[in-house]
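I have a small job for you when you get a moment. Would you make up a two-line entry for one protein for me to read? No commentary is needed, just the two lines. Write everything out right here, beneath this request.
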Amino acid sequence: MPKILDGKIIRNEIIVKLKKEIEGFETKPTLAIIQIGDLAESNKYIKAKKTFAEKIGAEVRHVQFAETVLQDEVIVEIQRLNQDESVQGIILQLPIPKNLNSLEIIEMIDPEKDVDGLTLLTKFTPATARGVMALLDYYQIDVVDKKVTVMGRSKLVGGPIAKLLVSRGAIVSVVHHLTENPKEITKTADILIVAIGKPHLIDETYIKEGQVVVDVGITMEDDQMFGDVNFEKVKDIVSAISPVPGGVGPLTVASLFLNLVAAHKNMV
């Protein structure tokens, strides 16, 4: 069996650290979550964020719009939250209805409050990318001069992960749906990070012996959570792998609140 890169252990350590830090604040850090519609998947993620906030003593302000909301109405609410000094972090819960432009809406968030780290002028490392690095750092998996392949180039997940890895000294290749012969590229990597959102796509034909695999993908089907990697088909080949659930996911939430606490300190 490979080493399991368990994000829950690290998350629990972060909870203890942040709870102690927040106890010393005069006011509680407050995160505003903007939700559009009522997707079961989004509700699950928001519940996880509210639970984490409760454990560390932070506040969550949940702003929910109907699926029929106009983009301008959402932007007006963001502008109001930008001006609200009692709110230190603002995030847009994704996905949102296709008739709305998520990138344009996100860009309206004040970079000082963009704790998801997604605006062009953000002050923060994107939460998912920070979570991936926290996992690798905790298990002492060095990325300097290592070949790292990132599957997925989205502006919200794959792109920020690749950018952060480059800044940390990794030799990064990015594979996406237009890449020719992707398996030839993934098999050359020392570390394979998968963020494509296609459950169980990655099997033994994509990987090589002794590889470290980080599964960032999350897909909900019939109230079950699946990753992009077929664990059963790769477990006897890889040296280490992050599970879904319980790998990067808990650290994405924890990283969000690390950013929130940093935003709170910046605004005091």
Observations:
- The chain has two domains: 25-111, 127-249.
- DSSP finds nine helices and eleven strands in the chain.
- The chain has a mean pLDDT of 95.
